[in-house]
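Subgroup meeting minutes
Present: P.N., E.W., G.H.
Scribe: E.W.

1. P.N. recapped why we're keeping a running log of single-chain structure predictions: easier to compare across weeks, and new members can see raw inputs and outputs side by side.
2. G.H. added today's entry (522 aa).
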Amino acid sequence: MPAAPAAQRLAVSSSAAISPATDAARLDVTVIGGGIAGLSAAALLARDGLSVQLLEAHSQTGGCAGTFRRGPYVFDVGATQVAGLEPGGIHDRLFRHLGVEAPAATPLDPGCVVDLCDGQAPVRLWRDPERWRQERQRQFPGSEPFWSLCAALHAANWSFAGRHPVLPPRTLWDLGQLLRALRPANLASGALALASVADLLRLSGCGGNPRLRRFLDLQLRLYSQEPAEGTAALYGASVLTMAQAPLGLWHLQGSMQALSATLETALAARGGHLHLRHRVTSLQPAQPKGWCVRGEGPDGGAFTSLSRDVVVTLPPQALAGLLGEAMPETYRERVSGFPDPSGALVFYGAVERSLLPAECPAHLQIDWADPGSLFVSVSREGDGRAPAGQATVIASVFTQARPWLELEREAYAKAKAKAMAGIQDGLERNLGLDTAAWRHRELATPRGFARWTGRPYGFVGGLGQHPSRFGPFGLASRTPLPGLWLCGDSIHPGEGTAGVTLSALMASRQLLQARGRSLALP
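Output recorded in log:
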């Protein structure tokens, strides 16, 4: 079995209570939240020579990309695949900049298998672009104008993203970074800034293909929390190509915690401090410049810390509680006006590998009615998640988060049992399993995610990639309060480990520019 995650091995040394705050002990930066965004921002800023502390409420890092054990099994909590590890990808560039070795990983081929449960063969998202072209032509005859339009938009978007624009801009420097990244192709695609993927279907003459629309609704919901009608065209055009080379989706050896462990190593190597079991409860401006950070430490005692800048990776819905009266009213109104992010129901199971279908893919998406479409991840033999001859099976479903925390105990137990039965039924029917096959099974709800991540209501996604909230229309990493920055899945470019890492890079660049410094990855 793999060794305990690095976050757990470091817990004793890294979770000691913070020393009492004094002006002499004022730090450069406090980062709140030890998910991938927080770890990336903290490591980047420490690499640039700033004094950095990272505060994480849980006993390990990783957040929604963390892991947990049940006997011999290691389960990825939420995220189960990684983008951006290919040469030139954001994780590859970040690790080279930080001087650490990327975790071992293998490309997924196919990246996912999508079963529309319509009696036809499942759709396989092959890594090879030509093989994928042949697959989609077979599965969705006449759809090539749509895919060609997406490819053109993706090419413009990807080169634009590689020049690291700041979106949305809030200062002249931000605007300069945005203008520097623009090219004629981006100006042309900008005409579709408020369009949806469904609009692309109509523009390409493919709007009358119900099977294609069903496929797109499933895939886009997975990455943007929205169906085709509600997913920004410029975002959707790129995520629909993520599984193909030269990009790709990757399966980490050991567990998703390997990504966090690598970033922890980089943070420690540059003198940054990780404090586990430190829950922040209040952020208040401090004189003459900076922030006073208060919270509860590992022993339940209070801590206070001073720093010039604070980077918050929590959902923006948490800001009102942290800032109190310090939050400008117009900003409070804007944040409160956003729709709730999604919650998740996640089934964690384990079976004998021999009981699974032959050549069972690592990732499947199943169009299932109750409680909803299933995204299924199956461990690989020897990847450190299950003993030899066994496999972990994780199935997740998006759900509204708030209702799960508002249920009384008895109603909650019934709702949880019903959801678990529905997911289990979907897995058994589509994977050919018998109920007696499960060696382990349990279900997590938004209530459990609220405890695990500390996120309000157990939200697991960002604001969603609706045209009205994507790119220039989204929430800025630069807040109206000097020295307070945001990154994570609610900030451009959005969800996923690659997306939140790009948001951490953007916020770090802005913070350093305010100090007269610059940051550029190789």
